[in-house]
Automatic annotation (TrEMBL):
This is Thymidylate kinase. It catalyses: dTMP + ATP = dTDP + ADP. Its EC number is 2.7.4.9. One of its GO terms (cellular component) is cytosol. Transmembrane segments: none annotated. The gene is tmk. One of its GO terms (molecular function) is dTMP kinase activity. Belongs to the thymidylate kinase family. GO terms for biological process: dTDP biosynthetic process; dTTP biosynthetic process; dUDP biosynthetic process. Residues 8-199 form the Thymidylate kinase-like domain. Keywords: ATP-binding, Kinase, Nucleotide biosynthesis, Nucleotide-binding, Transferase.
Length: 209
């Protein structure tokens, strides 16, 4: 039996990485034997591409270059890690995937959601997520959370201003409408335990069906 491909999306500071860290330690979740991974990254080549994309020194990076690098990292990660795990019957829990590119590069950078979808279709070859959990948060609250956290690395995209992050959120809203059949929304501006519980509830219901 094939595993499911489940992605976690949201603007900066929405807390999805923290929630995933909770799920990694959760017995009920571990019984489902999921494979946790992230984008851009998850394997050596894609982690290297990640450091090129997110390097704060690379202020000259062109938006199309950025979109292509995300798609390249995505392709390699899919082929090397995600697809083999799914074939082995594991459920893959991936921190960010194509919807990030649609919201950030397609909408916030202004490249066009359809244009970015099209270069990604080449990269993913119809391997869309089975389920996406979207962490909804006001970008102002998200950015404040990041500013207050010493642990989190500050990357090139974190340096963008609030206007950019508001556009990311608008981009996600379009993506939510377009792919409403596979996206579940959780309210992320609450205590972490409440958010973890909601996410667990969604996953348990989905994976037990
Ligand atoms: P992270 O902070 O969730 O690890 O993600 C790294 C940054 O990359 C974050 O600012 C979102 C951004 N990103 C894109 O702009 N497009 C993409 O396709 C992906 C996967 C991430």
């Amino acid at each position: 039996m094939k595993g499911k491909f489940i992605t976690f999306e949201g603007p900066e500071g929405a807390g999805k990485t923290t929630v995933l860290e909770h799920l990694m330690r959760d017995k009920e979740m571990l019984n489902m034997a999921p494979m946790f991974t992230r984008e851009p990254g998850g394997i050596i080549i894609s982690e290297k591409i990640r450091s090129v994309i997110l390097d704060k020194e690379h202020t000259e990076m062109d938006s199309r270059t950025e979109a292509l690098l995300y798609a390249a990292a995505r392709r390699q990660h899919l082929v090397e890690k995600v697809m083999p795990s799914i074939r082995e019957g594991k459920h893959v829990f991936c921190d960010r995937f194509i919807d990030s590119s649609l919201a950030y590069q397609g909408y916030a950078r202004g490249l066009g959601i359809d244009e970015v979808l099209s270069i990604n279709q080449f990269a993913i070859d119809e391997m869309m997520p089975d389920l996406t959990i979207y962490f909804e948060i006001d970008p102002e609250i998200g950015l404040k959370r990041i500013a207050a956290s010493d642990e989190r690395e500050k990357n090139r995209l974190d340096l963008e201003d609030l206007t950019f992050h508001k556009r990311v959120q608008e981009g996600y809203e379009i993506v939510l409408q377009r792919f409403s059949n596979r996206i579940a929304v959780v309210q992320a501006d609450r205590a972490i335990d409440e958010v973890v519980n909601d996410v667990k509830g969604i996953l348990k219901k989905y994976l037990s069906n």
